[in-house]
Description:
With 382 residues, this protein is of the alpha/beta class. Helices cover 35% and strands 18% of the residues. The chain has helices at 26-29, 38-53, 65-72, 82-106, 119-122, 124-139, 162-172, 227-239, 254-259, 275-283, 296-305, 345-351, 359-363; strands at residues 19-24, 57-62, 111-116, 143-148, 177-182, 203-204, 243-248, 266-268, 290-294, 314-319, 326-331, 334-340, 378-380. An 8-stranded mixed β-sheet has the order 3-4-2-1-5-7-8-6, with helices on both faces. α7 (162-172) packs parallel to α8 (227-239).
Amino acid sequence: MSCPDTIPSVRERILRKKKIVIKVGTSSITYDNGKLNLRFIDQLAQQISDLMNRGIQVILVTSGAIGVGVPIIGFQEKPSYLPYKQAAAAVGQGFLMNVYERFFHEYGHHVGQVLLTKGDSLNPKRYMYARGMMMALLELGVLPIINENDAVAADEIKIGDNDTLSATVASIADADLLIILSDVDGLYDKNPSRYSYAKLIEEVPVFSRSLFRTAEGPGTARGTGGMYTKLQAAEICVHSGIDMIIARSTVPRVLYRIMDGESIGTLFVGESVHPQMKKRKMIIGADIKGTIFVDAGCRDAVLHKGSSILPVGITGTSGDFQDGDIISVSCDGEELARGITHYNRNDVDKICGVHTSEINEALGHQAPYDTVIHRDNLLVLH
Ligand code: GLU
């Protein structure tokens, strides 16, 4: 594997990426007849496994459940009747995971299937649990393989396309790069299927909504997203401070080359967003269901060391809150922070002032978390 002689300066940032989401579309992992493109999946698995061996955390978002399921259950084309589509997804998803599992196993990695729906990104409680689970898989060295839960999600509760889903996943997981592998080279200044002189845009330093004018309709009959949904994904990423690259999946060794800084596809440069601002969107504006009061030691740790809220620093509670609710953190009459609580008020009352090693005993059962509010879910207001 050779690195490019000169890495374009804007691509140098790619060399520093530590947590990336890779999205593959149905048109990349299947042939036109709906059967799996095993050569592509093998190369994908090899490249992702090698990136993981390099120490990069990877999340794979894959489409294909419906596309693969359709021929398996004997349909000629994607049915429009929703229960049939859901049935195709149920069959196709299992098949797809089985294939991924075997390829990744060959390269020495374990995979975990995660099926999400829209609520997982909108509801703070579900967001918190989805995030905790993804972080845990990454920490344990398992590759999360994500799709929308098409077998149960009806259209109105669906994200609908995996481009947007992959951007949502990148933001839930605090990734620093999303790579969308597709059947296009990237973003062009005009529609390349209509204008032969259309030029590939290598870099979008500042995202502008006027880019949507260059995008038209969905891609293939089997997939869902076209350039429009990719731009929607780019908008989410860029505003969340995440870089995004769209590239053609058939470019040889595409992931290695992108991660080595080669200028492939279109790079949308993420805005510089302070980590606190990312949490702000979710936490500010939500109903505050209660307050926990903390001592001066906890106040210091939160304000100056970026710590989580541990039971030992809590002196009392007010309000009526459940796990997953947004609550306020206060010390001496001053609101320090807001965040999503792992415990309901009743449980916080039982464990307040208690050392980590004694939480189980105070709670009367095995504690699911050491922290009452994890720092990832805590927005400091100072
Ligand atoms: N979630 C759908 C599937 O797996 C694909 C959606 C998309 O292609 O964007 O079939």
